[in-house]
Design brief:
The structure is a single chain. By secondary structure, the protein is of the alpha/beta class. It has one domain: Metal-dependent hydrolases (TIM Barrel), CATH 3.20.20. It is built from nine helices and eight strands. The protein has helices spanning about 20-25, 40-50, 70-80, 105-120, 135-140, 160-165, 185-190, 220-235, 235-250, and strands at about 1-5, 30-35, 55-60, 85-95, 125-130, 150, 170-175, 200. It has an eight-stranded parallel sheet with strand order 1-2-3-4-5-6-7-8. The longest helix is centred in the middle third of the chain and has 18 residues, at about 105-120. The protein is globular, with a radius of gyration of 17 Å.
């Protein structure tokens, strides 16, 4: 029972062999996954996938890199989709200071709007953070994001920042990087964050875990993430799988 909380099966990298990828995931014990849509085309495809597969859910929102493209109409559309029974969260949203397509001020404004929307529709949020930790934490606090909570997706910060996020009602999600030999911080986070606050993900097709690093990632590889966390924490794979699945179902309100 593995729950991959963050996949991009709506990416063009799966156009040729989506069915096989899903079958491989199921054969590795992946029972649930959340497909994340972050702009017009990927949101639409995420909804199609969620409606086509009983075990696939959708998360819809606007990516900070593309914040400059988001209109009020897009925000209204996301609000409409929020009432769909297969939509379990809003996102991925947040801040990305690595790329400079969208000015910081616009990213922050779009981020705040989406947090407010999540509070209105009572859904958790999925946070994308790249080189913007201090501003993200500050905005989450200022906007009262604790009310809905959510996920720090593909968390790359320190154990101290993780603890601060947990206090604000967020789960810490670890992906492929925790398996990298030189990934000091994710391993420290895996060791220190309580198992009832951890989630697992692939972020596929990106960030494939060792030994597939640099290749296309897929949901079946989330098992490698769970195995690494189990080893770090001195738990069995079954214990990590069970706990992280229960955490995800609780957060996403999946019966």
């Amino acid at each position: 029972m593995l729950f991959d909380t963050h996949v991009h099966l709506n990416a063009e990298q799966y156009n040729e062999d989506l069915e096989e990828v899903i079958e491989r995931a199921q054969s590795e014990g992946v029972t649930n996954m959340v497909v994340v849509g972050f702009d017009r085309s990927t949101i639409q495809r995420a909804m199609e996938l969620a409606e086509s597969y009983e075990f696939i859910y959708a998360c819809v929102g606007w990516h900070p890199v593309d914040a400059i493209d988001m209109t009020e109409k897009d925000l209204e559309w996301i609000e409409d989709l929020a009432s769909h029974p297969k939509v379990v969260a809003l996102g991925e949203m947040g801040l990305d200071y690595h790329w400079d397509k969208s000015p910081k001020e616009i990213q922050q404004e779009v981020f705040r709007k989406q947090i407010r929307l999540a509070k209105k529709v009572k859904l958790p949020i999925v946070i994308h953070n790249r080189e913007a930790t201090a501003d993200i934490v500050e905005i989450l606090k200022e906007e009262g994001a604790e009310e809905v909570g959510g996920i720090m997706h593909c968390f790359s910060g320190s154990p101290e920042v993780a603890k601060e996020c947990i206090k604000m009602n967020f789960y810490i999600s670890l992906g492929g990087p925790v398996t990298f030999k030189n990934a000091k911080k994710p391993k420290e986070v895996a060791a220190e964050v309580p198992i009832d606050k951890l989630l697992i993900e692939t972020d596929c097709p990106y960030l494939a875990p060792h030994p597939y690093r640099g290749k296309r990632n897929e949901p079946g590889y989330v098992r490698l993430v769970a195995e690494e966390i189990a080893e770090i924490k001195g738990l069995t794979l079954e214990e990590v799988a069970s706990a992280t699945t229960q955490n995800a179902k609780k957060l996403f309100a999946i019966k």
